[in-house]
Amino acid sequence: MAELKKIEYVEFGARKIVGMMKMTSFQKAGEECWGVAFKEGVFDRIQEIERWNCKDIDDYIGLGHMSKFVGNDNFQYIIGKFVELDAPVPEKMYTENISAGTVAKIWIEADNLNDIINCAYLICSEAIEKTGYKIDFEKFYWCDVYTYDRYCTPLEKGQKIILDYLLPVIKVP
CA 171, CA 164: separation in Å to the nearest integer? Predict the structure, then answer.
């Protein structure tokens, strides 16, 4: 069972995400996107521009950026990394600008990834509402970040994992 471990709010400057983009669904995103990204060396190519990585996120292997939802289960999914706006874009890589604003950084912990994914949106939205914010649907994106400290290392050790989520929010007056 997944549980909220931490929520905080930060101001993110404008940035862009660089990576591989596909239109997908929640059921297909793992194999169709992450599997392909590793197979095709997406993160090796992004490493070419590592010095432009945004420094306001804990060290991570990669992130999944969901946006442009069509219905409940079809969306644009970018597997990649956040970089500074002036970063060059490696050949055959997709890029999209992300506007500045307040972002909820939410940690969700569970025994396995499926337990987190199955209830992440509900946990995130409830936590945001209970802490005086609301999701900014005009700038909406949903981003899962796979950090080394909270995801990769615990996974290798057979421990509980934490997946970080980022969502744009607005303070409720």
Answer: 20
Which 8-state DSSP code applies to residue 30?
Answer: I
For 39, the token pair is 């197979």
**20 beta partners:** 79
Question: Tokens representing 168?
Answer: 């744009």
Contact 16, 67 (CB under 8 A): no
CB atoms within 10 A of CB 49: 17
Which among 133, 140, 139, 137 is positioned nearest to 170, based on CA atoms?
133
Residue of 43, 40, 34 whose CA lies nearest to 144: 34
Cα(94)–Cα(84) distance, rounded to whole angstroms?
Answer: 14
pLDDT digits (tens, 9 = 90+) for 35-53: 899 999 999 999 999 999 9
